[in-house]
Amino acid sequence: TADTITAVDVLVTSPGRNFVLLKITTADGVTGWGDATLNGRELAVASYLRDHLAPLLIGRDPARVEDTWQYLYRGSYWRRGPVTMTAIGAVDIALWDIKGKTTGQPVYQLLGGAVRDRILAYTHATGWDLPQLLESIEVRREHGFRAVRAQSGVPGLEMVYGVSRSGTGYEPAGRGAAPVEEPWDTDAYLRHIPRVLTRIREHVGPELKLLHDAHHRLTPGEAARLGRALEPADLFWLEDVTPAENQEVLRHIRHHTTVPLAIGEVFNTVWECQTLITEQLIDFIRTCVSHAGGISHLRRIATLADLWQVRLGPHGPSDISPVALGASLHLGLATPNFAIQEYMGYEPLVHEVFRHAWSYADGHLHPGDAPGIGVEIDEELAARHPYEPAYLPVARRLDGSMTDW
Ligand code: GCO
Ligand code: MG
């Protein structure tokens, strides 16, 4: 007889930053973990899961992963959107975890088995000025990284997205009752950044993969200009050049530059990826497993992308918990057009709360061979670090008007 779901629990924990976790328990005593973290809007997803999905899941057969996905997606009527899709994603990841544990297989085996030995990772290097940034890149290379995202300060601005003045890792979410306000000046950025990335390329030589994130700030014209100016720096990708709403503008940008483009960390479904993929307006799709409906749905996005030679480079900053990172790695090991995984790394306390089978070595990640996703949570330790309000920053132009962060 089929196993049934007997408990669905939501944990909100803050070991240095907030994470929302879903724990599904079955009558046979199997537990599966999912990640429902939506940076700066954590409690909305916690409530969606606790108040609306948990009661629907009790009594269901945990083996019916796809049917549960369909039930929750089609059954909400109010489809898509980050809150809904993150909640569904958490359920999906937890059910794949259970399926792996029940069958004694790591999830990548259930997805068809490994198509590669390991997954290329990229990490973040930040520096306020060029010497600091070059030093930061050097440190990452010494840790084995072959791909690095470089973000630099901009003269005239007090702070900039992606850069900490101290040279330590950048954590965008700030604790407190309201968001930090960052200043922004597109002209200063556009004057400065091409020179920085070109100098980095001269300094590091041809092999290191260099990435840069424009974080949704440019107009199509500015994006096209930046793309052209960055061609000598031979980037692996230029990310999020324009805000995500107007995808048609990518046709214009594409017409003017061959710089590889990556977009999609804020997308939640295959429908938002469709135009960019089928018109080959991007080279890399950035959707991540926790915000885009779980393994089942990211796999659909990957399949569509594969038809159009678009590859996956999923989002993986500090707000993607080690559970979601593990899920992404299982998919990555079993998916032909998976190119690279963002890996910002975690504070030591996060590694204590999340005991994970996945591992990093020599610039690459591997999901490990534990049954399921292979990430277990120390619930006692997690409970000692309760939720704290935290927000992503907002940005204002120099005249005080709001712009995209
Ligand atoms: C990235 C992202 C992050 C986001 C953050 C928002 O490419 O890693 O842009 O830095 O800003 O994840 O929650
Ligand atoms: Mg980004």
Automatic annotation (TrEMBL):
Q: What class of enzyme is it?
A: lyase
GO BP: any one term: amino acid catabolic process
Q: Name one Pfam family in it.
A: MR_MLE_C
For this protein, what is any one GO molecular function term?
Answer: magnesium ion binding
| Transmembrane parts of this sequence | none
Looking up InterPro entries in the UniProt record yields: D-mannonate_dehydratase-like, DgoD-like, Enolase-like_C_sf, Enolase-like_N, Enolase_C-like, Mandel_Rmase/mucon_lact_enz_CS, Mandelate_racemase_C, Mandelate_racemase_N_dom
The catalytic activity of this protein is classed by the Enzyme Commission as 4.2.1.8
UniProt keyword annotation of Endoplasmic reticulum present: no
Stored SMART domains: MR_MLE
Q: What keywords tag this UniProt record?
A: Lyase
The chain positions of domain Mandelate racemase/muconate lactonizing enzyme C-terminal read 130-260
What is this protein called in UniProt?
A: Mandelate racemase/muconate lactonizing protein
In its UniProt entry, the species of origin is given as Streptomyces iranensis
Q: What is the lineage of its organism?
A: Bacteria, Bacillati, Actinomycetota, Actinomycetes, Kitasatosporales
